[in-house]
């Protein structure tokens, strides 16, 4: 709203205008609107009255009448470019981004008014980023549906059909590693192991540390009897840095399939410490048993029996098994997904394995505190913070659902720092500059800003 004196007003309209300004300053917007309407009735051509009234109508959400006044201004006073800025803001609030972009661009091309220029640039920047993001998002939604369909076909043994879907995805975006990893699995299940190996290698050419491609490749080499390549690939897997629990599970699962008992002991113990999930402790005990460390295995099973309720597994069966080996020195091994129920069918064993996987999936998400601290670390890697800044940022982080899975912590760090800097510390920053500083695209920034802006800004959104 433009404040100040109005030049060359009709005396009566001037009085109503001043009254309207005073009511606005008191927060009495409805009364202010009535006073400005009265002033406009008395001086219908006055630019200042019309522009201010349009601004107040926009504040209460009456965009139809606000736009009508602004369009009259643009038509009758073509050199009063602020009306273009007002129209751009209104259409943005109405969600009509194409129209908003049109008027903001015209405003920036024609106006030299510095009062609204930076705001117009920021809003235009946001709109263009949002449009780009929405376009990419629609395309990604299409590809996600194709991936889901391909995965369904893969899981149901329709490998040839699944391959068609994965290839379709990769023809549109060859950086979707999930599609290529599953394509390699489809080839493997069809017996085309060399093709499976080549597809896994294509992932690793782009993403050297991709956990799924590395693990799949090790399994492919094992099946193909390529001992030398398998040894090399196992070394790579054991040296991979895994931060996500799903990645840790994938590594552990691969080690189990390849009977790498010594490595399993360490990995299962690590996952138990992270998740407190007793099934990992059970897996550790089996690995110890299979490497003839019977006393340690028995100790773990005794602790599990005492502290945890695990109805899917007969712990007594394993305790008896290890006691029998200790007594008789008779060599034996245990499968990692044995339930302890004799006579179980293969179908029952498979279902148990699926239930186990679902059960441990519950523990995949990082805790709120862990993610909050990691985000703060990311911010401090990119900018220098005072103690006041840190406290302010931690307050913002407390408003976010950081216990969720699949969070882009770098993007969230950029968004939180931007919101704190601009809206709380009141320092001038631009979204595109912050995105660049944190090493992410404007599209990614926009996605997470849209996701969390209401939580971070509340009414300011």
TrEMBL record:
Transmembrane segments: none annotated. It holds the Pfam family TPR_11. TPR repeats lie at residues 13-46, 177-210. This is Tetratricopeptide repeat protein. Gene3D superfamilies: Tetratricopeptide repeat domain. Keywords: Coiled coil, Repeat, TPR repeat. SMART domains: TPR. InterPro entries: CellSynth/LPSAsmb/PSIAsmb, TPR-like_helical_dom_sf, TPR_rpt. Residues 117-146 form a coiled coil.
